[in-house]
Amino acid sequence: MWRRSHRVVGDAADHDMAGGSSPTCCWANLPQELLREILAKIEAADSAWPSRRSVVACAGVCRSWRQITKEIVKVPELSGYLTFPISVKQPGPRDYLLQCFIKRNRSTQTYHLYLSLTNALADDGKFLLAARKCRRATCTDYIISLHSDDMSKGSSTYLGKLRSNFLGTKFIVYDGQPPHAGAKMTRSRSTRLANLKQVSPRIPFGNYSVAHISYELNVLGSRGPRRMQCVMDSIPASAIESGGVAPTQTEFLFSNADSFPSIPFFRSKSNRSEKFLSGPLACQKDGALVLRNKAPRWHEQLQCWCLNFHGRVTVASVKNFQLVASPENGPAGLEHEKIILQFGKVGKDLFTMDYRYPISAFQAFAICLSSFDTKIACE
Question: What does the angle CA 29 – CA 30 – CA 31 come to, to the nearest 5 degrees?
Answer without folding.
Answer: 115
